[in-house]
Fold:
Amino acid sequence: MYPSEKRSLYRFILIYLLSTLILFSAGSYLFYAFEKHHLLDRQREALKHEGERIQHQLMLLQKRFADKLPYPAKQPYESAIFDKNKDLIFSTFSLPLKINFAQEYSLRGRYLVYIKPIDPYYLGAAYLMIRIPVDQEGISSLQRMILLFMLGAGLFFVIIGYYLGRLFVAPMRESIERMNGFIQDTTHELNTPISTILTNLELMEELHKCNAPEEMQRIEIASKTLSRIYDDLTYLRLHNNYHRDVQPIDLSALIRERLLYFATAITAKRISLTETIESGVTLEIDRDDAIRLIDNLISNAIKYNHTRGLLAVALTSRELQVKDSGIGIEKKDLETIFERFKRANKSEGGFGIGLNIVSQVAQRYGFEISIDSTPNIGTEVAIQW
Amino acid sequence: MVKSILFFTFSTVLLWSTETIAPAALQEQCLQCHTTQHIPSEAIYRRYLMRYSSRETIKQKIFSYLKAPVIERSIMPPQFFKKFSIKEASSMSDEVLRRRIDDYIDYFDVSKRLFVPSGQN
Structure:
């Protein structure tokens, strides 16, 4: 799976699952609240019946009024009677400090409390308070059921989301594959003619002392550009399974060599080059990776520079810095500039793969890239290791 | 069998011993007359309890009736006075009268009579 495809798939699944989760959580909460309410309603009803029973028994006790009056207690209910001033007459349990006589039903800790006004005041009781432990077992079983349902639904939607996601990214996969196929075919067809042009160009310069140096220079620049595009495309196509020979590279020498390679293009555009290259800087990197990194930075700095512009290449033991005085990049494009086929400015040619290759190389070796750009002032790219 | 007899005897003695006994002053100054004249003091208390519920109100209502007894202020229905004559105003001092009323209420106090039958608590 391609990284962009994977990214899109994960984003799709994440959004899909999040929205499903929110929907199901809301639904489950409503169901839970409704069922819990229903459960408590049943207990409220039971409390009401118990209240009626106790009131009836109090009436009988009032009539009897013997020396010993058996209070009509019944498990699992606990109750208490109060006089009109809300002073306790009798209780089967230790009472809470604060009792709200105005609220008919209330939840107090793990108890459902019922307050029933009594009239006439049998045995002086004006209020009857009954409480019952909330049916925790019923609520726990309801919670378990909802949790199981959520887990089951979650699993189901993960599977559905994965297959939907695959369907969702299928067109992207097809277009990436088509593009890769195209690149593969193009690079294959370009290889031989580019090599032929470059070899013969060298031969002509050395053996035949050509009388048209400017025309030759333009051919050389065009051929080298083609050659670099070929190298970049091959790199992109092969970078996943390309064998790397990571060893200490003399980066100072390599940068000087690549600047020489671009000398014709720099001269043609009358760019002033400033080299501040510390000697003897070595870096553990595959040579081809290093060339792709350097070439793309220098090539961009030339391509997007103005005629008679400035190009500064600086190398220290910690950092490579390439700075130009070119057209620059808009701030909004800076975040996505490293994406493949991203071109902030379409006035110049190219596929938008240069900075993507720079980013891939940096990512592979754990380098840090920082880019600072101002439109019409210039761009500065720094690679730190 | 022996165990059952012993248990029955023990329970009866226990119940008898916990029976509410009126304080001597109350018995002498109030209940005695009620008993001899067959005026049901318990029924009167029950009526007070059922109408006024709170101890403080009952005390206040009994006190005001005993100080100036009139049929309209009595807890008992007017028919009651066809059988029993209305009593004279109490000659006791306010303090003594209040103490007797307290004794009267304590004697019939519901919270002392109520109990949770074993096996139900």
